[in-house]
Amino acid sequence: MVQTSSGTRRVFICGSALRGQPDHQNLQSAQFIKETKTLPLYRLHAAENGWHPAIYQTEVGGISIPGEIYEMTDEQFEYLATNEPPHMYPTEVLLEEEETAMAFFYPQELIEKYSWPDISEYGGWAAYKQAIATP
Questions:
Q1: What is the C-alpha to C-alpha distance for residues 14 and 127, in angstroms, rounded to an integer?
Q2: pTM higher than 0.85 for the full model?
Q3: HSE (CB half, 13 Å, CA atoms) of 19?
Q4: Where exactly are the structural domains of the chain?
Q5: How far apart are alpha carbons 96 and 74 in whole angstroms?
Q6: What string of DSSP letters covers 6-19?
Q7: Residue 134's pLDDT is what?
Q8: Are 48 and 106 contacting, i.e. CB atoms less than 8 angstroms apart?
Q9: pLDDT tens-digit profile of 60-116?
C-alpha cells in the first residue's frame, strides 16, 4: 500500500466519489490534497450500464485520467473499499510528477466480457456523466 509518513494513505479518486459526484460521501472526512491525473497508461470504461467507472492499465492506447488525491486513514480507506462496486480492487496507480497512489481498478477481462463502452475519449468520469446528461 502507498502510505505516507503519518500512517495514512494517498488515494486517487476518478469516478463517482469525486467532488460533486453522487458517491463523494463515501470518502467521509478524507482530506482533499489536489487534482491530478494519471500517466497515459490507462483506459476508462462505463461499467454496469454506466453505473460506475472501470479503469485498467494497458500497454497500448492509454490515456491520462483526471482525478483527485485524498489522504485517508485506514478506517476511511476500508469504508471506501466496502462501498466500491463488486469486482473492484485496490492497486497502485502511476500519476503525473512521478507520484503514486492507491486506486480502485476493474478486471479488464470482465470489461471485455460484458463489452462495456470505452469512454476514455470523454476526458474523465465527470465529463462523461455531464455529456450523457446533456440532451
A1: 11
A2: yes
A3: 12
A4: 9-133
A5: 24
A6: TS-EEEEE-STTST
A7: 74
A8: no
A9: 999 999 999 999 999 999 999 999 989 999 999 999 999 999 999 999 999 999 999
**Mean pLDDT score across all residues of the chain:** 92
9-133, superfamily in CATH? Gamma-glutamyl cyclotransferase-like (3.10.490.10)
In whole angstroms, what is the distance from residue 47 CA to residue 53 CA?
6
Block residue for cell numbers 481498478: 105
Q: Which residues contact 37 (CB under 8 A, 6 or more apart)?
A: 64, 65, 66, 67, 95, 96
Contact between 92 and 35 under an 8 Å Cβ cutoff? The reply is: no
Residue type, 61: G
Residue pair 32/92 in contact by the 8 Å Cβ criterion = no
The residue type at 116: W
Q: What percent of the chain has pLDDT over 90?
A: 81
DSSP character string of 67-82: EEEEEE-HHHHHHHHH
